[in-house]
Each structure stands twice: as structure tokens, then as C-alpha cells.
Amino acid sequence: MSRSQITRGARLTQADLARGTDGADGHRDDDGCPILHVDMDAFYASCELRSRPDLVGLPMIVGGDGSRGVVTAATYEARKYGIHSAMPMSRAKRLCPDVVILPPDFALYTEVSAGVMAVFRDVTPLVEPLSLDEAFLDVSGAIRRMGPPAVIAEDIRSRVHDEQGITCSVGVASTKFVAKLASTRAKPDGLLVVPADRVVSFLHPLPVGELWGVGEKTEEALLRLGLTTVGDIAHTPLDTLVRALGQASGAHLAALAWGRDPRSVEVPEGEKSIGNEETFPRDVDDPEVIRRELLRLSEKVAARLRQQGYAGRTVVLKVRFADFSTITRSRTLRSPTDVGRDIYATARDLYDALGLQRARLRLVGVRAEGLVDAAEAPRQMLLDEPELGWREAEQAVDRASARFGRGSVRPARLLGTGEGDGFGGAPVAPRPRG
DNA sequence: TCTGGGGTCCTTCAGCTC
DNA sequence: TCTGGAGCTGAAGGACCC
């Protein structure tokens, strides 16, 4: 695999890394740049290529191959055809009829991710994962032991490559947001240092859409104001930005445009919500089918809550109609729960209250928010509650699933609805024919 | 072209209490 | 007793990220 590094910008050369300085005055480009953003290159696809070396160099994508699947990850060879993640599969296949399609294997990606994160935590305890394939690191405390940030970054890149067989790109900067931009520009398989005194000149020529937090809508709003580069944002009055984008976003973007980002690397404390949703292979208008799917999703959410030791206080129902419009309805319970029965009862009530008759639905989802530690969660005890209730029954199901496989025990209503993933398995909606 | 699934954060609005 | 404002919480929706 190539170990090439980008040569533009302020990236240190191998010679600089070996010498330990970047100039005659002994000043290093990475002085005052303790933040690293490490991002795996085409992560899911790279994981697959480890066991499929015959596919190296070919256009390959990972994603669901169903009627409504989208691309989850694409190799750089596939990207040359214009394929990118979140693109509908049907379109990807039109762009590159020979593209190799592999179904996602999240267990594998989770395992590789754990190995990569272990490399990071070997360097510093200050690791903030953003997803399976990227993380921020604050290496301030490792400099004395391991050397300057750019050397640490190169060490991480080598270890990830040697131990996990995949490549990553690293951005090194004084702030999280600049480090993140730097890693993106270093891709693939590169390292980019943005010196603290060159942040503004690095940022201002960039198009507004490259800023972290500027998506399609915000970019449209900025373009309407005639702002096309980060420099344009920097020289726009704060009032104007706030009027166009709201208080928080306007002030945030104004600060970022000058490279000001006070956010430190935070080790996450825990999840804030846990949910599951399912897009039907075809739109569904049968309330019984939809209630059954809500039951399956509720049981799945509850099992995940119990597995991670959480209970949720608010249940959120999500409904997406055939025209892609989406609504949510939520209800806060008197006490947090990790019982599928309770979550389902709430989700079903919320659904019934919508009075949809036979509206065609594309997707339903169930989410638990307001998570608390299940062991410390107050529980609502009823006067006539039996000594062993649904919670204990579902814990028994957890034990059976651990022993005999997921889906081995499930609610009677879900029997015969397909092979199980979690409790319910495949979507209960009718499958496309032919 | 036709849009998955799992999340987080922000804004707005309504209802409640003081 | 009535009224208005502040502050809080819950609900809903939207935007964004990977």
C-alpha cells in the first residue's frame, strides 16, 4: 500500500520529521498544534479489502443492495466514476455498471475500529471518537514522551497501517476544526500540519461548503448573501450572519472563519439517545403491519438499552411518508424504562394518535432519549405489579439470545415475520416481488 | 436521481410555575 | 383577583454529521 504523503501546504517532509525542526531558527510548524484529527480512508471499503485482496484497485462499494439501498462507502477507484456515500445504489450502478457491491459487515468494522482506537489511547487518554472511523486526539501530554505532534501523527499512521492493514489521514492543528479540515485535505493516506500562524491564510480561500457544520441548506443561505469563501464569511458583520442563520450558527461560523474554536477534546461520557428505524422495501399502509414493525423496533431499542445499561425517559416515534416528508412525536414517561413492552406501548399510542387511516408510510422509527444509568433509574412500581414483570422476562430473553443466538426468542406477534436480527429480523413489510 | 441508518445539536413554540 | 414577564421543560422539526 502506498505510503505517499501530500506535499502541498505546510506538511513536514520525512527529513523534517527526522531532523525534528522545520526551519533554521528551530521553530517547528507543529509548535502549538497539539490537536490531531485522524480519519480512516474509505473505512468500510478498506476493511473489506483486507479479506478481499483480489478487489484491490477495482471500483467497489459497500451498501445495501435492496430496492432502496444507498452507498455506505466507496473505494477511491469507485469515486472516480462520481460515486459517493449516501448516493442511491441504483444511481451508482448506472455510473459504473461493473462496480463490485459488498453488503456491510458492521461487526467487522466495529472490531477494526476498536483496534484503531486502542492505538490512539496508547498515545493519549484524550481521545474523542466521532464515529467508527475518526477521532480527535489531544497529544499535549505525549509530546515529551513521543516527540512533536507531527512525529506522533506519523507514528499513529504507521501503527494503524501495520496493525490493522488500512490507511488513515491525519490533520495536525491548534484547534479541532482546523485539524478536521486538514485531515480532509490530506486524504488519502496523508498528513497535513496547519501551523498556528498560518490558520487564517489556510482557511480564507476555502469554499464555505468545506466548513464543518455547513451543509446544503446553510451553504444555500450563505450563497444568497453572496458569500462563497470562508474569507467572505470572516468579513461579514456578525449581525448579518445571525439574521441569516440564527444566533448559535451565525456566531459559531463567524468565529470559525477566523480560526477561533475553543472546543477542547472531550472524552465522551455516554450515549444521549438510542434508536432504530426501518425503511420498508415498499411503502406500507396497513396499520397492523406498521404496529408490528413498531413492536420489533421497540424490542430492539430496549435490548440495546439493557445491553448498555441505560434506561430512557422519552420515547420518540418517527414517521416518514411516501412523499419523504417526516414527522416525529414524543412522550416523556413518568420514569425511565428499558422494557420493550413499555416503549412499544408508548410508540403505538403515539402512532394511533396520529389517526393516519391508511396513509402510505416509507419509514418508521423508535428512539429512546433522556438516557440515565438503568441501575440508578427510579422505577414506577404499581400496586398490582407482579414480583417478576416484563423487565425480568425481557432480561431472560437477553440471556437466551446470548446463548442460542439473536432472535431465538421473540414476541409471538413477530413469529413468522422473517429471519431475526435482534428480535424481529427482516422488515415485516411485504417484500418486492420478482 | 431519488434519497439508509444512527446519531447530535439547535431553534421555535407552548404550557406551566412563580 | 388579575396580569405580565422570566425561567424552565417538553415537544416538534430541521440541519448536519459519518
Task: Give your account of this protein's structure.
The structure is a single chain. The chain is an alpha+beta fold and 434 residues long. It has three domains: 1-197, 2-Layer Sandwich (Alpha-Beta Plaits); 204-257, 5' to 3' exonuclease, C-terminal subdomain (DNA polymerase, domain 1, Orthogonal Bundle), CATH 1.10.150.20; 274-414, Dna Ligase, domain 1. It is 38% helix and 20% strand. The protein contains 16 helices and twelve strands. It has helices spanning 14-19, 43-51, 76-79, 89-95, 106-123, 143-146, 149-164, 176-186, 199-203, 216-224, 230-234, 238-245, 247-257, 287-308, 340-354, 390-404, and strands at residues 35-40, 60-63, 71-74, 100-102, 127-131, 134-138, 168-173, 191-193, 273-284, 310-321, 326-337, 361-373. The chain has a five-stranded mixed beta sheet. It has a four-stranded antiparallel beta sheet with strand order 9-12-10-11, covered by helices on one side. Strands 3-2-4 form a three-stranded mixed beta sheet. Strand 5 (127-131) and strand 6 (134-138) form a beta hairpin. The longest helix is centred in the last third of the chain and has 22 residues, at 287-308. The protein is globular. 37% of the residues are buried. The structure holds a DNA duplex (18 and 18 nucleotides).
